[in-house]
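Fold these two proteins, one after the other.
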Amino acid sequence: MSTSTIKRALVTGGSGGIGAAICKRLARDGHHVYVHANRGVDAASAIVSEMLTAGGRAEAVSFDVTDAGATQRALEAILNDGPIQILVNNAGIHDDAVFPGMSSDQWHRVIDTSVDGFFNVTQPLMMPMIRTRWGRIINTSSITALTGNRGQVNYAAAKGALNAATKSLALEVASRGITVNAVAPGIIATPMSKGVFDEETIGRLVPMKRAGLPEEVAGLVAYLASDEAGYVTAQVISINGGMI
């Protein structure tokens, strides 16, 4: 990739299984990647070291996406070096419980991370991105937002809101050369999913009879972040092995 086409990318939740795969793929494609973490700072730094060793461009950044002030300060420091043109809103958490037994804290923690986090990170980056007349925003949703899932009313609500925000923001910025899409993974082989889905369950739920790979999700994100995807916007694309 030539220097003129290098884009600066920020991946929130970049220290997790899917986030790390996205960061590595974007770096492999030649972008300068900011690997974000909140509590997983050591993991983010290790991922950055691996990317630098492979010849990529990367930096680790740490802030809590639910803290508007801290997020604003961190983004101002990043923007001092230029606009972010690829944003992957990947930060999200589970805190599962059946709804009659769900606490207010469980509800708000999940909503705050996905929905408030989306606003806190995306809104300050918009005008610098708009001025470049080129941008890619990819939001990590979930198949749960499309199908529902017992014990995840909070998570489904959070990701459903993200899907709706994706479509509306896409309409606002379409004429500015900016696309906004969401990726909704199904069962993906990450440390988080291994404790939830055994092989028998995966075989029953997934027509392809296997869990997806983080690298497969990263490949879809990389396409949506590319010039080739310039006419794809306002879409929620599920990558799920045929579950829906």
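Now the second one:
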Amino acid sequence: MKVYFGIENFKNVNNPVVTTGTFDGVHLGHQKIISRIKEVAASINGETVLLTFYPHPRMVLFPEDNELKLITSQSEKIELLEKYGIDHLIIYPFTNEFSRLSSVEFVRNVLANKIKTQKLVIGYNHHFGRNREGSFEHLKEYCPLYGFDVEEIPAKDIDNNQISSTKIRKALQLGDIKTATSYLGHYYSLMGKVVEGKKNGQTIGFPTINIKVEDRYKLIAADGVYAVKVKYNGMMYGGMLNIGNNPTIEGKGRSIEVNIFDFNKNIYNEEATIYFIERLRDEIKFNNLEELKMQLSKDRENAIQALSLNK
């Protein structure tokens, strides 16, 4: 997959089949669109192009709204889109100036003149252009003028619930990993740097690595204990993770700590990716360290069982 940070370096490709949107989470609804553009591209000897934006438009248009967090960081989204087989990814800088483009200017200047779109595939209820004025109906009107076709993909449903990035964010904020995974079609994950902690886990027989997520817009799942997989240096390990304030040992500030099973390497300042498999319990304040150790032993057993069911 070729990645373009901005559209200036994008060169003409063979029969571009295009989709556009924020694609936060790259969930099952997004995957449905990706599958369709791959199918169309194969039928016309074309190449797939996904046009997305950074920062997220809401962060530019509503800067006072500091609560928006994203399911995927930019690097995580790039990795997922490559996994799902996109040929060309354009990450367009979203600015106030760009937001003032009318829908017809966006279609003419970007989709037609720059990308030279042969076919555009969009998701259900997709809007674009100044004040989100553009819609599928507008596209059907404009496309013949600029020489490309457009197709709208119906929303993806699970159990009659329409999938959306907003619903997945809410599930993660509640710690509902099961729902988030079912809507994403892959595990929710976070990438981060391994940093030095207080080594409290080591003193009670459950050494942990501390993960620092450097993307300030990344959504971190609800506090609690989770069964996880840890990817480090191309290898996958099982583990259990705690998000929270470590109330039993009077931790200060929220932390992300992972006990990796059968692992004793020093990996400070290196990158690791955590995949959330199942939520095991809430974070609890215990009366003493002995009670905490007993619970951690149970958590390990439960995590191993959860991981064995999700190989």
